[in-house]
Amino acid sequence: MSDELDDYFRCVEHAGRWAFQVGVITWNGPDAPEITWKNYRRWRTQPDADRLARARAAALKQARFFGTCAHCGALNNAGHMFDSDLCQGCAAKSIGIVY
């Protein structure tokens, strides 16, 4: 798993409960990406490293969060995908999409 994807995960505590959150890129303009945090798992106690690793691995398989480009094989945040099987970079190179 790529370290580049680490920025899309965080674990936060609020009112004694823990939430594992996944960040999804949204676009408010062609040059204005923003990250929106979505709760993925919640726990009553602070999760250990193994629990966090399992949550991360499961989230990476969720199409609502991440997608694998059929052209280059890269795993990307859903917000960096042109469609379900083509990343923005490959869309620009292979079909002429301009961002």
Layout of secondary structure:
Blueprint: E1 9-14, E2 17-27, E3 33-43, H1 49-60, E4 66-68, E5 75-77, E6 81-83, E7 86-87, H2 88-94
Antiparallel strand pairs: 1-2, 2-3, 4-5, 6-7
Number of beta-strand segments:
7
C-alpha geometry: elongated
Widest β-sheet, arrangement of strands: 1-2-3
User: What string, H for helix and E for strand, traces the elements in order?
Assistant: EEEHEEEEH
Tally of distinct domains: 1
Main beta-sheet annotation: 3 strands, antiparallel
Work out the helix count. 2
Span between termini:
27 Å
Structural class, by secondary structure, is alpha+beta
Radius of gyration: 15 Å
- Give the overall pLDDT as a whole number: 93
Oligomer: single chain
Low-pLDDT residue spans: none
Helix content: 10-25%
- Strand-residue proportion: 35-45%
Description:
With 99 residues, this protein is of the alpha+beta class. 19% of the residues lie in helices and 39% in strands. It contains two helices and seven strands. The strands form three sheets. Strands 1-2-3 form a three-stranded antiparallel β-sheet, with helices on one face. Strands 4-5 form a two-stranded antiparallel sheet. The two termini are 27 Å apart. The mean pLDDT is 93.
Features:
single chain, alpha+beta, 3-stranded antiparallel beta sheet, 2 helices, 19% helix
